[in-house]
């Protein structure tokens, strides 16, 4: 298989769709705890639905990754940079999958209110309420969201570094209409 110069349309759609949803959820999620219970229940219906969508899209993305060769490192990248970007991407994949799974685990045991994603998937009905387990998964979901936020910020800064300082094609090859020099 030859290494392509840029990502195909499927990879770009998945990247930007997941990226936008997760960034909105990471920011909006921080406001959840301060809301009154009835308002929180309504918003969690959407939050849990979008989170479930992220999980499904991540599974599609993993399948894409296994069946396609992504563009490789550019000639300008040092061995250290290549290693770091590999770690970063593996970390992002793992935490993007872990975040909705921890949310679902929390939803299954939560005692304060019912969680029915998009009004369709009844997570609360999957297990007996358990305040201790709900608290544990709440802490893990919050902790993972903090680490994920740091990785996402690092990922965006790395893309800007490539584009504006290293002036290579790394960011352009993922942009919707990005033109890549051969
Ligand atoms: C990529 C997916 C997701 C992201 C980025 C995300 C992000 C967040 C964030 C940042 C918080 C606030 C954490 C805190 O302040 O400690 C939160 C809370 C929460 N999330 Fe998620 N979440 C995701 C998926 C899910 C899913 C799939 C579910 C359930 C099925 C879920 C259920 C919850 C619940 C129940 C809370 C606590 C709300 C409360 O305080 O009552 N999340 N989420």
Strand order of the largest sheet: 1-2
Query: Beta-sheet strand percentage?
Result: under 5%
Bound heterogens, unique = protoporphyrin IX containing FE
Low-confidence stretches: none
Structural write-up:
It is built from 4 helices and 2 strands; from the N terminus they run αααββα. By secondary structure, it is an all-alpha fold. The protein has a single domain, classed as Up-down Bundle (Fumarate Reductase Cytochrome B subunit), CATH 1.20.950. A two-stranded antiparallel ribbon has the order 1-2. A hairpin with a 3-residue loop joins β1 and β2. α1 runs antiparallel to α2, α2 packs across α3 and α3 packs antiparallel against α4. The longest helix is centred in the C-terminal third of the chain and has 35 residues. The two termini are 17 Å apart. Bound molecules: protoporphyrin IX containing FE. Protoporphyrin IX containing FE (HEM) binds next to α1, α2, α3 and α4.
In short:
The protein is an all-alpha fold and 182 residues long.
Notable characteristics:
binds protoporphyrin IX containing FE; elongated; 65% helix; mainly alpha; 182 residues; Fumarate Reductase Cytochrome B subunit
Give me the secondary-structure topology.
Layout: H1 9-29, H2 37-67, H3 79-109, E1 116-117, E2 121-122, H4 131-165
Antiparallel strand pairs: 1-2
Helix pairs in contact: 1-2, 2-3, 3-4
The structure holds protoporphyrin IX containing FE.
